[in-house]
Write a structure and sequence with these properties.
Number of strands: 12
Distance between the termini: 73 Å
Largest sheet: 7 strands, antiparallel
Order of helices and strands: HHEEEEEEEEEEEE
Radius of gyration: 32 Å
Length: 227
């Protein structure tokens, strides 16, 4: 018996496979033509002695108009959403090569002794603000006393040196800022600066992601400041 699975690609033919066969699925949605046909059938078969009231007829028409209107609005919103995403992508593309400030606690240094810039946004004046830098092993390598800071965006800079004054090696480091309010020590949100390498669209979250040097991927909506 001949082998029916032979390869016929050399003569421009492909073998049959259920996987590449398209089956047309029956739609379960009621379209305008279906609705009019149903209404005509209903009017034809109604009891002559008890015909459909005008109010009932108009009510069914109104219901169909409402559903049709909602479907139309849904299509319009989908089109608008696509347009906004494209516009946002064009805006984000201009960020490549620029520095952005975003919430982050970890940064990977590519060079020994690489400096790091960042900021903390304070809602009120805070005392005893301290920046702690730890290495990949969780060891505290530098503690900077930033003192008392007023409310607003307050920037800081780490020179890439440990407490002994030696340049730290390249690698991953964690940054934590604490401050004292009403005698209690609180962990404050840390913002770090990084350069945007490229921009990508994340289909899972339906949003744009910025690939930032040292910080990894961050959401476009999370960018606190540009430049």
């Amino acid at each position: 018996m001949a082998d029916v699975s032979a390869d016929y690609s050399g003569i421009g033919l492909t073998t049959y496979s259920p996987s590449n066969t398209t089956v047309k699925e029956k739609s379960d949605k009621l379209g305008q033509a279906d609705f009019l046909k149903l209404m005509t059938t209903q009017l034809t078969n109604q009891d002559p002695l008890e015909p459909m009231e005008n109010g009932d007829f108009l009510g069914q028409m109104a219901q169909f108009s409402t559903v049709t209107g909602i479907e139309s609005l849904t299509k319009e919103f989908n089109t608008l959403s696509l347009s906004l995403n494209q516009s946002q992508a064009l805006q984000a593309a201009t960020l490549v090569g620029k520095n952005v400030l975003a919430p982050a606690t970890k940064m990977t240094l590519t060079d020994a002794g690489q400096s790091v810039n960042g900021a903390v946004d304070l809602s009120a004046s805070t005392q005893g603000v301290t920046l702690n830098v730890t290495d990949a092993n969780g060891q505290l390598i530098r503690s900077l006393n930033l003192g008392s800071l007023s409310s607003g965006l307050q920037e800081f800079s780490w020179d890439g040196l440990n407490d002994s004054g030696k340049a730290v090696p390249a690698g991953a480091y964690t940054f934590q800022i604490t401050g004292q309010n009403d005698g209690k020590t609180e962990v404050l949100e840390t913002l770090l600066n990084g350069q945007v390498k490229n921009v990508a669209y994340d289909s899972a979250s339906s949003g744009l992601k910025l690939n930032v040097q040292g910080l990894g991927n961050i959401g476009f909506s999370d960018v606190y400041r540009i430049g």
